[in-house]
Amino acid sequence: MQKITRDELVKKACSLLENGTVSSVLGWRCGEFDYDITPSVFSSKDDIEKNFVWNDFCGANFSKYLVGKTARSEGKILVFLKPCDTYSFNQLLTEHRFDREKVYAVGIPCEGMADINKIKAVCGDGIASIAFTPDAFSVTTLYDDAPVLVPYADALSERCISCKSKKHVAYDELLGEDGNVLDSDRFDEVEKLEKLSPDERFVFWQNELSRCIRCNACRDVCPACTCEKCVFDNPASPVENKAAANSFEEKMFHIIRAFHVAGRCTDCGECSRVCPQNIPLHLLNRKFIKDINEFYGDYQAGAEVGSRAPLVDYTVDDIEPCDVFDGRDV
Amino acid sequence: MSLLFSMLDYLGIERERTHVEWVSAAEGAKFAQTMNDFAARVAALGENKRLEDLRCKK
């Protein structure tokens, strides 16, 4: 459960709105279900007090929204950033994707977000409402008489279990306390896959990627992927919005998607969060991050503004493609 | 390209299907040798089922 309360955020948003520091607020609004929290722009105090939401389902990373919002608004916009969101924020600033002057960033601590699929695994489908007790979600479903208790720790999403940092790397103001960069085990799953044989790896990925329905949610949510015109939307290309017709198309889309954000992906995990087919897309991105760390030295995209990423920085010592497999057994 | 080779391997694509060689425009014989060796290697692997591109079959 989150330590910082909704009331604190609402108070901050209202005071900044009232004293004219910002003209709108980027926050979370209740969606159709209690667990379906939607990013939204608020521009009045009434609206914020009534509809602003902050709880364990506010996983959405707002950084990408700033690209469109700052381009189209005159005044400043208030944005709430969790630690992992601040990395995307910095990365977008590095790429000059939004106007920093038009943003007022408030860093908020995060205790990790919940994965609704883990809750559904315990109490089944048909969730009518979710309440918050001190230790657990109290989930009322359409089929059970009494609410089912799901401890917070059991519902923590995978990306938050292997959280890389509780430290905010960008903000104008911080609510609550700042944390530290964590020594996470986020590459463990990638290592497990690397240890499999090529045949096993192929079966694993075919099983995962063949479920893709090409809804483009991973592309739309990715803060590293901010072109306003995308090749996958071009009707003249043979690759426009369409379900993959064969195994080549499945892989092509996902290899391209992961590859074109390589070196810029901050590992925020939004792609896996929004995937309706629960494909572990972050394992593709993490493979690139792990390889970049091994080939070119440790690098965290978004840790600072203006850092020169290894992939755009040539040195004569760079690894040759033919040497990639040296020392790898399988 | 290093990252791409590693990624294809990660997805279970045969690593023999990827190759880079630096060949100068003055090294005609080396170019021919490289291409022949690589073509033989890929042919020996058989049909590329794992990364099949159906556009090639039309």
Average predicted local confidence, pLDDT of chain A: 90
Overall average pLDDT of chain B:
87
The number of helical segments of chain A is 13
Number of E strands of chain A: 9
Radius of gyration of chain A in whole Å, from Cα? 21 Å
Strand content of chain A: 5-15%
Label the overall shape of chain B.
globular
Largest sheet of chain A: 6 strands, mixed
Task: Estimate the helix proportion of chain B, in percent.
Answer: 40-55%
What is the overall number of helices of chain B?
Answer: 2
Which tags fit this structure?
heterodimer; A: 330 residues; alpha/beta; six-stranded mixed β-sheet; three-stranded antiparallel β-sheet; 13% strand; globular; B: 58 residues; mainly alpha; 2 helices; 47% helix
Structure in words:
Chain A is α/β, with parallel strands linked by helices and 330 residues long. In chain A, 35% of the residues lie in helices and 13% in strands. Chain A has 13 helices and nine strands. Chain A has helices at 6-18, 45-51, 65-72, 83-94, 116-123, 152-155, 158-161, 188-195, 198-209, 217-221, 247-260, 270-274, 282-296; strands spanning 24-30, 37-42, 52-53, 77-81, 103-107, 127-132, 136-141, 148-151, 173-174. In chain A, strands 1, 2, 3, 4, 5 and 9 form a six-stranded mixed sheet that branches. A three-stranded antiparallel sheet of chain A has the order 6-7-8. In chain A, a hairpin with a 6-residue loop joins strand 7 and strand 8. With 58 residues, chain B is mainly alpha-helical. Helix content of chain B is 47%, strand content 0%. Chain B has two helices and no strands. Chain B has helices at residues 2-10, 28-45. The relative contact order of chain B is 0.15. The interface between A and B is medium-sized, with 36 and 24 residues.
